[in-house]
Amino acid sequence: MEDGVRVEPLETPVGTRRSTIREYAESLVIAIVLALCIRSLVVQAFKIPSGSMLQTLQIGDHILVNKFIYGVRLPFTDVTLIPVRSPKRRDVIVFRFPKDESKDFIKRVVGIPGDTIQVRNKALYVNSELQEESYAIHDPHDAFPHSMPNRDNFGPVTVPADSYFVMGDNRDHSLDSRFWGFVDNTKIRGKAFLIYWSWDKEATWVRWDRIADIIQ
Asked: Which candidate in 102, 103, 107, 177 is catalytic?
């Protein structure tokens, strides 16, 4: 005490500093765990690197994928804890590429378990019914015949249980189930539902008109 005034220490006690550091560390760990859980269980962002889904998805689109819609999975595994619903025809899904699971592919589901799939002269038939697909495009400069016969004429094949037949909307330029087979249900990451950002690298400009578009 000096003239009745209490003099406070200038330095924070060591114990208090350690407590503050511990609080920040705990908050950081909790934030990281929550972010990982959200990414693993709820929603995840992806970028479109190729034109296999034109015109639905453009190169440079950044999309969000709903990981909860097909069920709750044990984080970082392929084990489904709580099934929600199965993928439906026309769903746009992200999945691990069967030939290299370090890569993620995005395609459209055209065949579910039990469906018979056939492509005749580029036209898709499901259970012998011609499919009306407003989103599918073909290259007018790439006509028959083609050096990759599976592309324009394929099947018929029946989709096995717990598997899906997928194709890119850009039918003449898509590496899909016609060439490497079916997608196992356990390898599906989720359903693409929203474009949250889109960047045209060639023109170096933002595609403002695509931002917040629902993926259909």
From this structure: 107
Residue pair 124/110 in contact (Cβ under 8 Å)? The answer is yes
Strand partners, 165: 111
Structural domain boundaries, residue 50: 44-214
Q: What is the pLDDT of residue 17?
A: 57
Q: Is residue 52 annotated as part of the catalytic site, yes or no?
A: yes
Is the predicted pLDDT of residue 70 greater than 80, yes or no? yes
Q: Which helix (H) or strand (E) holds 53?
A: none
Q: pTM value?
A: 0.80
Mark whether 107 is an active-site residue. Answer: yes
- Better pLDDT: 71 or 5: 71
Is 1 among the domain residues? no
pLDDT at site 203: 82
Residue 136 included in any domain: yes
- Which candidate in 40, 47, 50, 52 is catalytic? 52
Task: Give CA–CA dist 156/114, Å, rounded.
Answer: 12
Q: How many CB atoms lie within 10 A of CB 136?
A: 21
